[in-house]
Specification:
Layout lengths: L1 E6 L5 H13 L3 E6 L1 H11 L3 H5 L4 E3 L18 E6 L1 H8 L6 H11 L4 E5 L6 H12 L3 E2 L13 H15 L14
Parallel strand pairs: 1-2, 1-4, 2-3, 4-5, 5-6
Helix pairs in contact: 1-7, 4-6
């Protein structure tokens, strides 16, 4: 498999880091692109610099490189997860604003009919946010709010991260056992 991972400036950067770690353990090829604010939030919330984040990916693409492979539909991927996804990025994707590599890659995933998963992080949500999410959902984008359930009875932040990462992987049909599923003993 080949997955594009986008990390933007929404809070909950720990989910993006967790996703990259799991994909690395599963030996899934990852193409990472990080917005400027994504880099800032990863550093602020996780204490990781960009080089540490890049080390979790198979390939890193600079967000300004619109000539990168992931900017073309002829570069086959199995989908993209934007985790976390800021409202700025969500709006840009919803309206086809491909002004950087991250939003261009998402645009390519959409135009090629591939799977796009967006993990938005904002609260409260405005009507604009909700309308943009509805627009994307109508295009087949999976909207997975950064809001883990607690019926699993998580006992640590790591378990909460595993729940969200596992649910994101489920959207791309990537087998995982990162959390206890409902009805499992």
């Amino acid at each position: 498999m080949r997955i594009i991972v986008g990390v933007t400036g929404g809070s909950c950067a720990i989910y993006g880091v967790g996703l990259l770690k799991v994909l690395q353990q599963l030996n899934i090829e990852t193409h990472l692109v990080v917005s400027k604010m994504g880099e800032y939030v990863v550093n602020h919330e996780c204490g990781m610099n960009l080089d540490e984040l890049k080390s979790l990916a198979t390939v890193y693409h600079d967000n300004n490189d619109l000539a990168a492979a992931i900017a073309s539909g002829s570069f086959k991927t199995d989908g993209m997860i934007i985790i976390p996804c800021s409202m700025r990025t969500l709006a840009a994707v919803a309206h086809g604003m491909s002004d950087n590599l991250l939003t261009r890659a998402a645009d390519v995933v959409l135009k090629e009919g591939r799977r796009l998963v967006i993990v938005p992080r904002e609260t409260p949500l405005s009507v604009i946010h909700l309308e943009n999410m509805l627009k994307l959902a109508r295009m087949g984008v999976k909207i997975l709010p950064a809001a883990p359930g607690f019926y699993h009875l998580p006992e640590s932040i790591e378990e909460i991260v595993s729940i969200m990462v596992g649910r994101a992987l489920d959207q791309l049909d990537i087998e995982n056992n990162l959390f206890k599923r409902w009805g499992e003993k």
